[in-house]
Amino acid sequence: MQLQSISRSVIAGIGIVSLGIAGCTQTRDFEAGTQAQSSAQTTTAQVSPNAGTQAPTRDPDVIYVPTPEPVVNEMLQIANVQSNDIVYDLGSGDGRIVIAAAKDRGARGIGIDINPERIREANQNAQKAGVTDRVEFRQQDLFETDFSEATVVTLYLLSDLNVKLRPKLLRELKPGTRIVSHAFDMGDWKPEKVVEVAGRTVYYWVVPENPPANLL
Ligand SMILES: C[S@@+](CC[C@H](N)C(=O)[O-])C[C@H]1O[C@@H](n2cnc3c(N)ncnc32)[C@H](O)[C@@H]1O
């Protein structure tokens, strides 16, 4: 199930409800949208592959729904990810995007997820893929994390979360950093490219030198 269809359901009148859907192990109260303090715990594939079994410090802002593999590939392709890139996936789930960036393109990858169960899975997947030397997973709140070293940022969140994150992306990322979002746009920040793949939409932006004030 796509996140878009979940959003549509909410718009259709489900209202304040925690949604549990097939394949999803997280729930999110879509209307309440918690704003509590972040966690700052870090686990890495290299050091602690089974770490991250404690409870999350707050509810995730969005449920876990994985990006299908063809869409992952397109996200890396549209951003032209190369071996000298540092790819941050904000809300990294089972780690598939940063693992693919490392395995297929030789990039370094950092996954940020608030849910320790996702971090544990991602570390296990990195081990299976043989990329623990190039990826790292951190249990953190993506709204609090320092991602300024990124050269590529990937997202599969929700439109309202993208818009909320937009000022931080534009202020903290270096000009020229590429941003790719599966399914969700950035409101008034219009993408440079939009690609359809496997029934999904992929959006692409490049951080400008001087972001317009209305986007900050
Ligand atoms: C839709 S899934 C996307 C997973 C992965 N990026 C992919 O495309 O396959 C969103 C992920 O964001 C995580 N998440 C939600 N709120 C978060 C937050 N505030 N900080 C960090 N991660 C968060 C969830 O735990 C979930 O794993």
TrEMBL record:
One of its GO terms (biological process) is methylation. Keywords: Methyltransferase, S-adenosyl-L-methionine, Transferase. Residues 33-60 are annotated as: Disordered. It comes from the Bacteria. GO terms for molecular function: protein-lysine N-methyltransferase activity. It holds the Pfam family Methyltransf_31. InterPro entries: FAM173A/B, Methyltranfer_dom, SAM-dependent_MTases_sf. Residues 47-56 have a biased composition (Polar residues). Residues 33-46 have a biased composition (Low complexity). Residues 83-194 form the Methyltransferase domain. This is Class I SAM-dependent methyltransferase.
